[in-house]
Structures are given as C-alpha cells and as structure tokens.
Amino acid sequence: MNNIILFVVNVDWFFISHRLVIAKEALAKGFKVYVACHDSGRKNEIIEAGIEFIDIPISRSGTNPINEIKTLLKLYSIYSNLKPGIVHHISLKPVIYGSIVSKLLKLKSVVNAISGLGYLFTTDRKSLAVFIIKGLFKLINIIGKPHYIFQNEMDLQEFKRLGVEENYTLIKGSGVNHKEFIYTPPIENQKVNITFTGRILKDKGIVELINAVEILPIEIQSKVVLNIYGKIDLDNPAHITDNELKKLLKPNLIIWHGNTNDIKNVLIKSDIYCLPSYREGLPKSTIEAMAIGRPIITTNAPGCEDTVSEGVNGFKVDIKDHKTLSEKLQILIQDETLRIQMGKKSREIFEENFTLDKVVKQTFDLYESLIVKN
Fold this sequence. Notes:
Layout: E1 4-11, H1 12-18, H2 20-28, E2 32-38, H3 43-47, E3 52-55, H4 65-82, E4 86-90, H5 92-104, E5 110-114, H6 118-121, H7 128-143, E6 147-150, H8 153-160, E7 168-170, E8 192-197, H9 206-214, H10 218-221, E9 224-229, H11 242-248, E10 254-256, H12 263-268, E11 272-275, H13 284-292, E12 296-299, E13 314-317, H14 322-334, H15 336-353, H16 356-373
Parallel strand pairs: 1-2, 1-4, 2-3, 4-5, 5-6, 6-7, 8-9, 8-11, 9-10, 11-12, 12-13
C-alpha cells in the first residue's frame, strides 16, 4: 500500500476548521497528503501547510443530475490516478460518492467520517431525499463495508439500522487544543454576556435563542447582552438571510457581529455559552467554550447532549423549547457563583473527553489498524 492519504470533504473552510490538524500530523508521520474539496477562497491555507489541493465541484446542497455526475466522474479520475493508501471521506455527500467510487476501484482502506447527519436528518424530516440517502447507505454497507467514524451514539444507532455492524469507531468530535484553549476565569463585564458562535442557521436554534432572550423579565434583560458570532450560509437549506436576521436584532440586547477569526477571545469575554441546535455530530464550538471554562446551555439533541452533564456543567432543554431555554438562562444570569462552578466543570469534562490529542491518537490508531488489516 502506498503512503498517500486523500481527504475528501465538501468545502475548504470546514476542512481547515475540523481536519487540518489531522492532515498536518499525517505529513509529520511521513504520509503524502491530498485534499479534494471545493475552493471557497481558502485553498492557500491548505497548500501552505504542505498539502496537495485538488479543487472539485462539490455542491453541498446541489441536486442537479448533470453536476452530480460530473462530481462523481471527477472523483473517479482522482482516485484512479492517486490510488490512495487511505481515503478519508468527511460529510454526507463525499461519504456517499466516495464510497461508490472506492468500491468501483477496489480501494480497501476507506474511512467514512459522519460528522453530523445534517439538515435532512434534523427533527425527523420525511422526504424523498432522505429515503434515497438511506437507501444508498444501505447499499454501500452491503457491497463496500467501509469503516465509519461516528461522533455520537445516536448517529451510530441510526447507521446500525442501515447495516453498519462492527466496522466503526466512536471518536468524540474533532478535538480542541488544550494548550491553546486554556481555562480562563470570567472577566468582569458590564452585562452578563451570553454568547453564540456558529453558522446562522435555523437548525442551530438561533431563532429560539433570540426568542428566549426576548422573553426574559425586563429587569433581567437590562443585565444581559446576547452576542451572536457567525456567518450567513445561503448554501444550507436551513439558512437565515442577512435581512431576516437583522429584523430580529435589538440594540444593546441582541447583537450580531458577523463572522470572527478570533473565537478564543470571544469566548474569554463570554459568561454563558448557548447552542440550542436541532442536531450535531459533536459541536466543536461548544467544546471550545468548555475548554475556556464556560457553563453550557444546549439541547438534548444528538451530539449536543454529549457535551453537558445536566446540572453539572450546564443545562439541556428540548429542541425548539425557547421558554425552558429562557428559564435556564435566567438561572445562570442571576447566579455568578453557579456560572463559575459550572465553567470549571466544563473544563474538567473537556480534558477528560474532548482534547485534540485524544482525537488525533484515536484517528491514527484507526489508520494503522486499517493498514495492517489491508
């Protein structure tokens, strides 16, 4: 087997955020590393790391048959030319298309990373697309037997119903560097700072979070500010437009700052971190907040629930339940001692479960087992 690792993912920014460290570690271990994904303008960050970049026309939400066939043919050409020793697919469309191509070319060391089941699987949406996707996965699991990485138990159980048996590994998230994101005591703010970081999507629960803040008692509202950081993602079917979001904002209470490249300092300035998402793989944004040492309010949705021990480092509420979310926010807003106590517990849970070192080790243990096996 050759020493080439090929990562296939939808878009460059997601690879940079969630897998670039793995790719750099592969380079350090002597692998030749390729990344095939759509260039949204950040490919140079990948190339500068010493990684070969291949631009491919993957559309995250596209369904045009001609374009999808072009993507499949492009992947076939790439796999055929490189004959990678390990091919690591990330996110649903690359997993499906890459698994099909890998089977056609008889590639053996195939890793399918399910980093979250996305829009179609949130709140049990029923559609022809879900039916087709589940059918394709059943077929892949019958004919191909790729090895899966799951980030949470609920996604694993979903895929067991689609035919996954023993060919899987559970790795909790993509990891956060414990030396870069260190525990930092809360700073003194004029108002209690509730923070959200992530793409501006309905499925992230951003509307529910805004509604929860709006129904806080007036005397509590005067003591808080909700700071929202993230970019509009029009390629996602659950997107919120710029104009839609701006209509929900309120001066001095609900503020959108746009995207940020300084997440660490945003979290240092926070008092409470909130992600009321409908479904995640395992949210890196929440893990970053835990590493800094902040209490977490999230949902009992897949992936989200793994980050909170109820009443220990935060609270969990039902999906779309903005009233209970508001009640839990109020508890933390009014109790600084509890915020600090829960924040310290967040750091402890992070160190035990979610460090980057742990994720890197588990990933390369998997690669090595596949190399030996095949």
